[in-house]
Amino acid sequence: MIKLFLNKILLFLAPILLVWMCIEVFYRFVPNNYTQKASEVKKNYDSEVLVLGNSHAFYGINPDDFSMKTYNFSNISQSLYFDELLLKKHLENFPNLKYVVLTVDYFSLSQIDNSSEDIYRKYYYEQYMDLNVPLISKFDPKSYSLSLTRNLEMNVDLIKSWIDEKTLIEGNKKGWARKTGVSSKYNNYETAVDVVAKNEDGLLDFNVNLNRLERISAMCLKRKVKVVMVTMPVTSYYASLVNKLKLEKLYLSCQRIAFNNDSLMYLNLFQDKKFDNNDFYDTDHLNEKGAEKCSKILNQFIAEDSKEL
Predict the structure, then answer these.
(1) Residues in contact with 96: Cβ distance below 8 Å, sequence separation at least 6, in sequence order
(2) Within 10 Å of residue 279's Cβ, how many Cβ atoms?
(3) Which of 32, 44, 67, 156 is the most core-located residue (most Cβ within 10 A)?
């Protein structure tokens, strides 16, 4: 009787275990943005400029438009929390590094650690990029099984995307992910309403991330590396919907920390009139043309500073 019961349990669990194993193999062996970044950064340790940050940098800063050798180490939804961890791991391996670029956007300074965007991504940084992530407990089963980091529907969608696109990798060998040269159907006011609502956390406490910027600056100062904070451009749709008080506090915080620290510089492109809505793929990500424009502006900003050294 017990044997029959156990056999039925095993028969019930067999397809579940098979699906779990297949998804786990997928996560372990299919290359993605994280595995590519972990591999390519080592081939670019001779870079003079290192770009960190979120998707605004991932799609908007092209190393080919820089006069110094540049590597784009940014990624989708990469917060200052992970920028700091990545810099700690790799900084000493860049003998020629002169500048580190950090995106400090509307939501960057108020963003909490272990936000909804980090719920599954933190495991990717740990497993794919060999980071020690303090947010993850050694008793967390997701740390040992990546298939558990997302629900079944999300896992299936990811596999479908891989089948359709034939890859999960967006960035090129220098870390930049190109958006098409035209605007998409998502570049409009209605989409901006949803995007800003998603980005808005309602928080005005910047202390945690300002302290993080100070630590990053101190880390770089030891290597005589300057940090360039850049607030990336957005469409007029996006800009019109943000909390103006929070935006002003962001500007003032970045200006203040740069004024008080010689190794920190700040470039604000949020509503820069050199950009118009045709430079964007969607409401807050630059297309190929916009990325070229942004990258050249940033390169000029760095070049002018380097002349003064």
Answers:
(1) 46, 47, 48, 69
(2) 21
(3) 44
HSE, side-chain direction, 13 A CA sphere, residue 251:
10
The Cα 109–Cα 211 span in angstroms is 10
CA dihedral 23, 42, 111, 28 (to 10 degrees): 10
Q: What is the pLDDT of residues 268-287, one digit of tens each?
A: 999 999 999 999 999 999 99
Q: How many CB atoms lie within 10 A of CB 47?
A: 25
Following CA atoms 117, 118, 121, 126 in sequence, which dihedral angle do they give, to the nearest 10 degrees? Answer: 170
How far apart are the C-alpha atoms of 110 and 213, rounded to whole Å? 13
Q: What is the pLDDT of residues 157-189, one digit of tens each?
A: 999 999 999 999 999 999 999 988 888 999 999
Superfamily for domain range 48-123+170-308:
SGNH hydrolase (3.40.50.1110)
